Amino acid sequence: MLYLLAIVGALTIAVLLWKAFGPDLRSRPSRVIGPDDDPDFLWKVDREFRRRSADGNPGPDQDPGD
Question: H/E element holding 20?
Answer without folding.
Answer: helix 2-21
